[in-house]
Amino acid sequence: MSEILRLERVSKAFGGIRAVSNVSFDLSEGEIVGLIGPNGAGKTTLVNLITGVHPLTAGKVVFTGQDVTRQKPYQAARRGLARTFQIVQPFPQMTVLENVAAGALFGGAPDTMAGALAEARRELDFVGLARLADTPAASLTLPNRKRLELAKSLAMRPKVLLLDEVNAGLNSAEIDGALDLIRQIAARGITIVIIEHLMKVVLSISERILVLHHGELIAEGEPRAVVEDERVIEAYLGAKFAARFKQETAGA
Amino acid sequence: MPRRALALIGLAAWIGLLAATPWIADNYTVRVAITIAMFSAMALSWNFIGGFTGYPSFSTAAFFGIGCYVGALAQRNGVPMVLAWTLATVSVALFAAALGAIILRLKGHYFAIGSIAVVEVVRLIVSSWGSVTGGGDGLNVPLLQGSPDWVAAKVLYVMLAIMLAAFAATVLVDRGRLGFGLRCINQNEDAADMVGIDTTRFKIAAYALSALFCGTVGAVYASWVGYIDPTDSFSILLTVKVPVMALLGGAGTVFGPVVGAGVFVLLEEFFWANFLEWNRAILGGIIVFLIFFLPGGILRLDYRRLLRRTLRQRETGQKSPEAAE
């Protein structure tokens, strides 16, 4: 598997606060990587740094061999570096179909409105929103808004998709549906970074896990290994969870 | 779409009526028709930035005024009239593009205030730069040749042509990639950025489009009236009137600005003629009423529901529960 995204000693300071410091890692094509860490660890900031929302204080972002450190968000989107937002960001007065078509037209391949609409219909089919295509985006329920956000990102034909808490606020049945969908997205060959609070979700789906704490990358590796890491247990998981998780996976 | 076709026929009839005024009506009416065409063109222009993009711009008067002065100065220096108008159009568009790169970083109320400040700043520059602009004394512009009737007709047709051009541009933008992108920016600028819209370039394009036709209108206006001065060219009233017209008709729609400009100018003329002392107050009251009760503009009214309600009322002879809400 070849490298698709590489971060080299990426740092971000907001005034005196170092939100992200010296984070380095790389992603291989087609991987599903989980990014975890306590509240305020800098996960969303890191996504914002990768997609050009905030300029970096120091460091380098390399995407498909190209230095994209100074890119703007729209450039990231066009290059194939898509993201979803923790708080969903639809175009509220447009229909569901138009929302997705926006992603296809501006971030994806089609150059014509008709092409974008066709692409949008395909993606709505994929995420299971086809029957709501003509309703205004503002009237969707939360799980469906999250699906819309996914469809919009997919229509941009991303190479890497950063999912910022797509499962937050969903109940367990809805989460199962969302996880299925994420697996199907990965099956299309899209590299996925999933930011998540629900440990079970991350551990069950990720091939590799990155742990962020106070803006620093404190652990990286296979889910099993990360869960046993002393520092991760101390910073985030707590001893109880680690023990239970070990038990559960040993029994399985 | 039959509704759209109907609206297009309505627009064609309206323009036909305006164009016929020199033959069927007196000079006063022709003057009203010119004013309507002029304001329709400017309201359509404003619609690009204020309607589609959702940036409440109050810089219309700056564009109009610069158009006046560039046109007038060019003509005074021997540039043929039509070329002077073109020059005014191009320079106003360039001015807006350069300015847009700076003030479009502001959002909401801040942008509104910034765009109003532009009018004042340009006015002050023009009135202080006496050696070029004539300062507060104003400028005489070479008069159009011909009888008053002929001049009025000529100006009317030029203004109507500008209005049609602005309308054609609106239709193109509305259907195309640019319009779609601007609507995305209007509804959620961060999300627009994230789906790959170069928001800065799109906003600058919208701002330049909103300036372009105002520049032409200004230059033609200068040729029409034959004399311009800073107060008249950079009037705050103009800068407020134009957005009100677009809002009145329906901001962000294709036909709204035309409807709004027509209704507003006719109302204004009516009150001017009938309530000489109170006309501004009455007009202000109407604006407040319209903004409160018709926030989406005249075109967004649900006429069928309104009609049904009135019919039901007439049948029962009393207030229906729906009307009481």
Q: Do you know the CATH topology of chain B?
A: ABC transporter involved in vitamin B12 uptake, BtuC
Summarize the main sheet of chain B.
Answer: 2 strands, antiparallel
Spatial order of strands in the largest sheet of chain B: 1-2
Which second-level CATH architecture of the largest domain in chain A applies? Answer: 3-Layer(aba) Sandwich
Number of helices of chain A: 10
Largest interface: A-B, 26 and 19 residues
Figure out the total of helices of chain B. 16
How many beta strands in the DSSP annotation of chain A?
Answer: 10
Order of helices and strands of chain B: HHHHHHEHHHHEHHHHHH
What proportion of the residues of chain A is helical, as a percent range?
A: 40-55%
Shape of chain A: globular
| First and last CA, distance of chain B | 33 Å
Largest sheet of chain A: 6 strands, mixed
SS-derived structural category of chain B? mainly alpha
Describe this entry's structure for a reader.
The complex is a heterodimer of chains A (252) and B (325). Chain A has 252 residues and is of the alpha/beta class. Chain A is built from 10 helices and 10 strands. Chain A has helices spanning 43-50, 73-79, 96-107, 113-127, 142-155, 172-187, 199-205, 223-228, 230-237, 239-251, and strands at residues 3-14, 17-28, 32-36, 58-63, 66-67, 81-84, 160-164, 191-195, 208-213, 216-221. A 6-stranded mixed β-sheet of chain A has the order 6-7-8-3-9-10, with helices on both faces. In chain A, strands 2-1-4-5 form a 4-stranded antiparallel β-sheet, covered by helices on one side. The longest helix of chain A is centred in the last third of the chain and has 16 residues, at 172-187. Chain A is globular. In chain A, 45% of the residues are buried. Chain B has 325 residues and is mainly alpha-helical. Chain B has one domain: ABC transporter involved in vitamin B12 uptake, BtuC. Chain B has 16 helices and 2 strands. Chain B has helices spanning 2-24, 27-52, 60-76, 81-103, 108-128, 130-133, 148-175, 177-187, 189-194, 199-225, 230-233, 236-249, 256-274, 279-293, 303-316, 321-324, and strands spanning 139-140, 227-228. The two termini of chain B are 33 Å apart. The model of chain B is unreliable at 319-325 (pLDDT under 50). At the A-B interface, helix 2 and helix 3 of A face helix 8 and helix 9 of B.
